[in-house]
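<amino_acid_chain>
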Amino acid sequence: MKHFQKFLLHSIILLLFSVNLCAQIPVGTWQDHLPYANAKNVAIGKNKIYCATDLALFYYDLQDNSVNKLNKINLLSDLEIGNIAYSKKHEKLIVAYKNGNIDLIFKEEIVNLPEINQEIISGGKCIYNVDYYDYKAFLSTDF
């Protein structure tokens, strides 16, 4: 009976350690722990519904019913999103940051427009709102 108890104890300890080792991420990879619960803005695209939080962006794909995260680790060029807007004519998502930086996302490609962020301006550079009208995006800012 003693041998069975030792065997059972060793088996349980081995099982606990092996489960713990499998839960770790591999060396050299990143995993985000950003807050996705507090939505601040929503934009409806062609086949996607985008949702912005303070530090990241995620979207729901209507074709395959998946939720995908976009953040500074995998695609975005900055943190602290001010606002998002989607242009149906261009099929582009504009991500405006609080520091004046702008990302244009289309067809899983990103273009960064850092001109406002890099400009020397007295006062803030926060982009509060983005509206599309015809083929132009209008930004409301501090300056």
Q: What stands out?
A: Strands lie at 41-44, 48-52, 57-61, 66-70, 81-87, 92-97, 102-106, 109-113, 127-133, 136-141. Helices lie at 2-22, 115-118. Residues 59 and 68 are 5 Å apart (CA to CA).
